Amino acid sequence: QSNLYVLYEHAAGFSLFSVKEFEEVSMFLPQVESSVTDLAKFSSIVKLAGFAPFKTAIAALENINAISEGIAPPDLISFLDDFFAKLKKKKCTLGIADAKLGAALTEAIGVQCSHFGVVPEILRGVRFHFAKLVKGFTDKSAGVAQLGLGHSYSRAKVKFNVHRSDNMIIQSIALLDQLDKDVNTFSMRIREWYSYHFPELVKIVPDNYMFAKAAKFIKDRKNLTQDKLDELEKIVLDSAKAQAIIDAAKMSMGMDISIVDLMNIELFAERVVKLSEYRKKLSTYLHNKMNLVAPNLQSLIGDQVGARLISHAGSLTNLAKYPASTVQILGAEKALFRALKTRSNTPKYGLIYHSSFIGRAGLKNKGRISRFLANKCSIASRIDCFLEQPTSVFGESLKQQVEDRLKFYESGDVPRKNIEVMKEAIEAVGLETAAGAVAQPDKKKKKKKRAAEDETEANGASNGNGAAAEEENGNGNADGEPKKKKKKKNKNKEAVEA
Q1: Which residues pair with 391 in a beta bridge?
Q2: Is the model more confident about 37 or about 382?
């Protein structure tokens, strides 16, 4: 007859429960299901056989992480090994929750594992009554242990490199697109509003940002005089335009406007200017973030197109999992399904259409270059996703390959093979990492050298103080150096001893 032992992984440690009358219990599975919630009945069948508590919270996290991956941790193997060694050659079966972990344990300790039949119900009962089955344990202490480990486990699973978080890129590109729409709408509104008072300004200053700044500065056109030419020139960045604005203000056909209306226009213009400035800052932030998270994708197709691809895929990891054919039409899903439905031509490109390469290609070659570019984007995203030390070397090489392919379509110059280009890029990365490795020991050496110099200076200062004390006692010469005097004194002592 086989003895059944059930392994339960709790936040406090590993526990083994022996199940009495295993064969009989298996026969009455529906009765077991109903009696699981009854402590008196359940405790008569299940008893605690062994318990191995986790020594620290870090150990608990490491063990639980291993178990979640289906790997048998060393602590668990040693605990089970010791336990089953005491039972000697008795026939035993180990009940576990995860089949993958069971396979790993069978391989490690040679005990037969089971995860079906009565085992899930027994484990459900153990989970329900755990605090009462283990002495010195309460519901409160069990809850605290579970909460602590739960937080640590979740944090470890969610935690990524802070500097390489692609979530920030997704939010930044979404905000950037929204800001573009909003700034454009607000600029059109300020143009219409201020044009009632000064309609000629729109033709002289067509740029939205400059127009808002100029409207904020001019306010009432009647007060615009030649004295303000220099300040106006700084805003429009052109002396001829500034002079044209002053001339137009003198003979404008716009209507007069009240002070209250002007105040509102000024406030709104200020808001538009600040939004435009913030958009520039956000664009810089996105550039820096892309340089950290996906430098190769950034080098290949630029900040915004790369960020849109990551955003559309959901994450850099998801983008890395996509085949090149999916990357090619990412963003053109509606057109694809419409084409499939109507049995017409499928789209050649999606979001990657906004990269400069497809615009530069001829009409006949747009589909070809988009396919080639999608292939390179797929490679770049995979390198960025799985490379530990971010570098843009591969991105630059891939970009050059796309440039060479464009030349090939235009002039027929045969481009280099991909394997040659990639070998060169790998060598360049190797040189980079070697240079970085050399630079680090140099820094350490400099630090050690400084520390040694500080120590010698401190020792010198202490020796100087000692010599000064000797001089005061009458043993030293006023003209001599302290260190030399000390040596002489030592020589005299040696002579006396001899």
Answers
A1: none
A2: 382
